[in-house]
Design a protein that fits this description.
Elements: H1 2-26, E1 33-35, E2 37-60, E3 65-70, E4 77-78, E5 83-87, H2 90-111, H3 117-149, H4 155-182, H5 186-213, E6 215-217, E7 222-227, E8 234-235, E9 240-257, E10 269-276, E11 279-298, E12 304-314, E13 328-345, E14 350-352, E15 355-362, E16 365-376, E17 380-385, E18 392-394
Antiparallel strand pairs: 1-18, 2-9, 2-13, 3-5, 3-8, 4-7, 5-6, 7-9, 9-12, 10-11, 10-13, 11-12, 13-17, 14-15, 15-16, 16-17
Helix pairs in contact: 2-4, 2-5, 3-4, 4-5
């Protein structure tokens, strides 16, 4: 009798579970739905660009250092050769002075190139002093490196310490070479001094050229369209400093990644967005040139990428907006377009194990359907296989409670 009662209780439990499952399946889930449509699907890419003129030129820094002075502002008129800015060349001047001193020393030794014991002792002392100076500079650089890692010094201070160490290392090499030269006699000694002089003179020529480039000048008569630096900024070779030129036909210059460029060609349409305070203005444009070769470009994240330069012209004047070379814009390119194809909203599609799926509504229930997708646009995805026009799909495929066969409303 007790055994029968136990079985009866188990049967009642199973029945309760089945009833709860049935109730769960009968409860409808609220969903957002959309219709499978036939239309056009376009894939786009947005790149940063800038306004240029046929008669404008970008001026980049050719040396590294801190901007000591800026002599012009946007809108100023300049003549060819006018000074636009100055970069602190203190480190270059110190290295030039050190090399000039070394050159004079070698010239003096060359005149008295007898290699006597007194001269050898002098050069040995000079080498010892140079090595001691290098050890001190190396120790100082290691200490500055640690402080830089802790954020206690600037990058400029780190680089100045590194330059001092490198200059000290050069002095050691020069002193060692001078000592060796002092130990030799005759023509071989003279030729060695001559080689040292030529080496130092070549270094001096390079450093003096760099010092001249620390004064940034206008390449031609014109107007300063853009000034991208200010006093106190730290610049490196390749830093854009100014855009100078004459107002001419406006062009839009941008760079497109090599994987997105294959379907772009001269004559294609683009959309150019001018972001201005209080109001954004979008204007249509046309591609006028796609460069045949890629260039290495560094992104805002410091990543080097191969990109191709693309030029475009505006199809119309953007209302009352005053456009000047140097302005930044967003350029939207259509890289691929499929017309008259089946499409669903992007948010309806989800992936699993390398396959694409949507939830289809059939007879008021959710049914999982594998699909084959094609071109992906900003809003819609092309469906090559798995759906038919007019079907309803669920927009949020990861909605809580959404399972195969569940009722939806």
């Amino acid at each position: 009798m007790k055994k029968w009662k136990k079985r009866g209780l188990i049967g009642a439990g199973i029945a309760a579970v089945l009833i709860l499952a049935a109730l769960s399946m009968s409860k409808a889930v609220d969903v957002e739905e959309a219709e499978v449509i036939r239309g056009n699907v376009a894939a786009v890419v947005v790149e940063k660009g800038k306004v240029t003129s046929e008669e404008s030129a970008d001026i980049y820094s050719e040396v590294q250092g801190r901007v000591k002075a800026v002599h012009v502002e946007e809108g100023d008129t300049v003549a060819r050769g006018d000074s636009l800015a100055e970069i602190d060349a203190g480190d270059l001047e110190a290295r030039i002075a050190a090399l000039e001193g070394e050159l004079k020393s070698i010239e003096g030794m060359e005149r008295a190139a007898q290699g006597n014991a007194s001269q050898v002792r002098q050069q040995e002392a000079a080498l010892e002093q140079a090595e001691l100076s290098f050890e001190l500079a190396e120790t100082a650089y290691q200490r500055v490196q640690q402080l830089y890692a802790e954020g206690a010094v600037t990058r400029a201070e780190l680089e100045r310490s590194q330059n001092e160490m490198e200059t000290a290392a050069e002095a050691v090499e020069q002193a060692r070479a001078a000592l060796n030269a002092a130990k030799k006699l005759g023509e071989g000694n003279r030729l060695q001094y001559q080689g040292q002089k030529e080496s130092i003179q070549a270094q001096l020529t390079r450093l003096r050229e760099q010092k001249e480039k620390a004064v940034v000048t206008a390449p031609a008569d014109g107007t300063v369209f853009a000034a991208g630096i200010q006093e106190g900024d730290f610049v490196s070779p390749g830093t854009l400093m100014f855009t100078v030129g004459k107002a001419g036909r406006i062009k839009i210059e941008t760079y497109v990644g090599t994987r997105d460029i294959r379907d772009l060609k001269t004559g294609d349409s683009v959309r150019v967005l001018f972001k201005m305070p209080g109001k954004d203005t979008e204007v249509s444009g046309t591609i006028t040139r796609v460069n045949p070769a890629a260039e290495e470009r560094v992104s805002s994240l410091g990543i080097t990428e191969d990109k191709i330069k693309v030029l475009a012209e505006l199809d119309e004047e953007p209302g009352e907006l005053r456009i000047t070379p140097g302005m930044s814009v967003d350029v939207t390119f259509t890289t691929q377009e499929e017309r008259d194809v089946l499409a669903v909203p992007r948010e309806a599609v989800f992936g699993d194990n390398g396959k694409d799926y949507v939830w289809v509504i059939e007879d008021g229930r959710a049914v999982l359907r594998e699909i084959t997708t094609g071109t992906e646009g900003d809003e819609f995805v092309e469906v090559e296989k798995g759906l038919r026009e007019g079907q309803q799909v669920i927009l949020n495929p990861h909605q809580e409670g959404l399972t195969e066969g569940i009722k939806v409303k």
